[in-house]
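Bumping my old thread because nobody answered last time. Still need a sequence for this structure:
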């Protein structure tokens, strides 16, 4: 040991009589050692921040690792979301704390499956370092392709416009889905996955607060504390962006839509969903179970299989790979494990709050209208050469502005709906009209309270205010005609109406608008109110019964009042 110390002393502290290049050697060695240490530490730090280290080395998390590699965030490291972007000292501190928790959990076996992230960094430290929330996002069209479980795997196409919104109300924006980020929304969740939300409040522009309570929950408001309230942010909805596992139906539809699995294989949509959805005791058992599709097609479609064996084999391989990346029995992880809060089909998602059951003290529900966040979906068949997507840009009738409109609209349906909508097969799912939309009807929306007893009690009191008072049958303006015009035209052509036309007063209808008088008493041929609504260009249309009443009224001289 003394010899080593003596050598080090003589190496680093050289005699001043030695040549300069020998005196420089210790400094060169120290410099190289410093560079080496910096490189090793930097490389080590970068590696411990990598997705590969987190998913395969630090702890065994194959579900999270594989789903991340297939997500939009495949190039975002785990630590950027779970530790957040912060100065180096803060990152080191967080890594030490999380590392100790991980190590102690592994040693003690105190972790539980499925793994649930309980200490995510807030969105402003993770999501918002890349996604600027004040940036306005334009609306965008989505096409969803679904396949039927028939021999031909018949496709249908659902189109909708997503009203992403964003920006600030100071810019005249701040609407759409991202309204929730521009405005302060605070909620109480009863579970770690935040699926049960009995209470929330919204801060209004004037600084006041409006509270909403789930009237079906019977939650005790006195139990609420500041600590268990959450402010709505990106992760409230985008909770599975990096680790989504699609249910078998959606996974197979996507594979078929992208032609990764051929739609020429008979019944492949049905059979693929069936083999993916079965309960398997192990992954090996699952791979063998999926492979039985070979026997199915040999038995039931022998000619097709003989000529297209490669298509079936490819489908089996793809389905096996899909299963391996979706189901992890050891970690108790599959498409049912974690709810996805984007949308509202497979999990409550938006319906956690927009369920028609959260009422404020005035009896107004958190709005449930489909077209708050997206246009009314349009479902088209494969044979349809044109899909007509409706985007509402006009005024809405007063009844539609009621916060509970979606829940009560079926109670108020009558022939007046045909003024603005096509109504063949109303409430059906035949897609033959606006009111027979299979994207809305024919489904069990279990997360919303359309039939909840407490809601019906509240709504029965409100229905009376939405039903118009019965009008006189007399064909005079202050009788049947006024009621027709208010109902069919008043939304757009009321006080200060579109085109300067007011059709809810007798003086207004005689005066007309920018195009001239709306009616010419005694002349139904040249009265604009009839020509404009029967030439196929006007949005709102009279029912045939109302049209005949207005014609008769005009031919009778368009009287304001009946005989005294």
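Sorry it took so long. Here it is:
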């Amino acid at each position: 040991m003394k010899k080593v110390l003596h050598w080090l002393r003589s190496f680093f502290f050289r005699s001043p009589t030695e040549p300069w290049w020998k005196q420089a050697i210790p400094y060169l060695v120290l410099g190289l050692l410093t560079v080496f240490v910096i490189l090793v530490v930097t490389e080590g730090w970068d590696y411990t921040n990598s997705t590969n280290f987190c998913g395969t080395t630090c702890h065994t998390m194959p579900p999270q690792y594989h789903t991340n590699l297939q997500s939009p965030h495949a190039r975002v490291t785990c630590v950027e979301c779970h530790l957040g972007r912060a100065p180096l000292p803060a990152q080191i501190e967080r890594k030490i704390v999380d590392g100790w928790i991980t190590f102690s959990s592994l040693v003690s076996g105190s972790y539980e499956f499925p793994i649930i992230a309980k200490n995510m960094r807030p969105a402003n430290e993770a999501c918002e370092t890349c996604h600027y929330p004040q940036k306005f996002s334009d609306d965008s069209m989505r096409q969803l392709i679904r396949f039927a479980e028939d021999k031909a795997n018949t496709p249908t196409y659902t189109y909708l416009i997503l009203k992403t919104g964003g920006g600030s109300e100071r810019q005249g924006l701040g609407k759409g889905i991202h309204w929730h980020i521009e405005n302060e929304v605070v909620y109480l969740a009863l579970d770690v996955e935040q699926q049960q939300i009995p209470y929330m409040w919204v801060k209004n522009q004037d600084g006041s607060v409006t509270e909403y309570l789930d009237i079906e929950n019977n939650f005790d408001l006195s139990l609420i504390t500041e600590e268990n309230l959450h402010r709505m942010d990106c992760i409230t909805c985008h909770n599975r962006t990096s680790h989504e596992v699609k249910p078998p139906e959606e996974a197979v539809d996507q594979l078929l839509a992208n032609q990764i699995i051929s739609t020429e294989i008979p019944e492949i949509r049905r059979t693929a969903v069936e083999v993916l959805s079965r309960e398997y005791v192990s992954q090996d058992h699952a791979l063998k179970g999926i492979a039985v599709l070979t026997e199915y097609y040999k038995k039931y479609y022998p000619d097709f299989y003989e000529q297209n064996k490669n298509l079936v084999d490819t489908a089996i391989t793809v389905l096996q790979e899909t299963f391996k990346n979706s189901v992890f029995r050891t970690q108790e992880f599959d498409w049912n494990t974690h709810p996805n809060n984007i949308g509202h089909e497979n999990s409550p998602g938006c319906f956690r709050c927009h369920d028609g059951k959260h009422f404020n003290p005035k009896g107004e529900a958190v709005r449930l209208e489909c077209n708050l966040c997206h246009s009314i979906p349009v479902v088209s068949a494969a044979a349809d050469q044109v899909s007509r997507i409706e985007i509402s840009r006009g005024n809405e009738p007063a009844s539609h502005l009621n916060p509970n409109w979606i829940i009560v609209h079926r109670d108020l349906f009558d022939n007046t709906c045909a003024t603005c909508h096509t109504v063949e097969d109303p409430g059906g799912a035949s897609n033959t009209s606006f009111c027979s939309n299979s994207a809305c009807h024919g489904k069990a929306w279990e997360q919303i309270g359309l039939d909840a007893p407490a809601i019906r009690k509240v709504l029965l009191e409100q229905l009376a205010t939405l039903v118009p008072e019965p009008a006189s049958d007399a064909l005079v303006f202050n009788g049947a005609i006024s009621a027709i015009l208010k109902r069919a035209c008043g939304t757009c052509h009321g006080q200060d109406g579109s085109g300067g036309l007011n059709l809810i007063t007798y003086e207004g209808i005689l005066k007309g608008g920018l195009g001239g008088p709306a009616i010419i008493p005694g002349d139904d041929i040249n009265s604009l109110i009839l020509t404009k609504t029967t030439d196929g260009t006007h949005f709102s249309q009279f029912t045939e019964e109302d049209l005949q009443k207005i014609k008769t009224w005009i031919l009778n001289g368009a009287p304001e009042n009946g005989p005294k």
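The mean pLDDT is 86. Let me know if any region looks off to you.
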